[in-house]
Design goal:
Elements: H1 2-20, H2 26-34, H3 40-64, H4 76-92, H5 97-106, H6 110-133
Helix pairs in contact: 2-3, 5-6
Length: 136
């Protein structure tokens, strides 16, 4: 199932680039969707791309008959801090993990390669600290 999901992500990124010349980075699509100065076509593409992202989980739920039986305990404060950190990183890094990791690397962008290596290294350190230092 993961291979199929990855193939769909790659196909959607290629399709968006081929048909609209736009990168399928979620932070860029979101900012175009809510920007006051965004043109109508860019806003429409962003709207339907984001709608597809939002509808994917409920459609999968209907097609498969239920959610996976996994539970990941979480602390709401840590989840909020993580969300703010991701938003800060996407702003500071001039793009999000999908923009740099999926689209930027495939275009051979040095900035995207550095950004993705930074994202991954930070994730490794965060998981290590959370599991082995804080015991969360």
């Amino acid at each position: 199932m993961s291979l199929g999901g990855g193939a769909l992500i790659g196909a959607s990124a290629v399709l968006l680039m081929a048909t609209n010349g736009r990168i399928a980075g979620i932070s860029g699509l979101t900012s175009r969707l809510f920007a006051r100065s965004s043109d109508g076509e860019a806003r429409g593409v962003s709207f339907f791309f984001m709608l597809g992202l939002l509808l994917a989980a409920p459609l999968w739920l209907l097609a498969s008959g239920g959610w996976p039986q996994q539970w990941v305990p979480s602390n709401p404060l840590l989840m909020a801090l993580a969300g703010l950190s991701v938003g800060f990183g996407a702003t500071y890094g001039n793009g999000c993990t999908s923009g740099h990791g999926v689209c930027g690397i495939s275009r051979g962008s040095a900035r995207s390669i550095v950004a993705t290596v930074t994202f991954m290294a930070t994730a490794f350190v965060t998981v290590f600290v959370m599991r082995h230092v804080l015991g969360a």
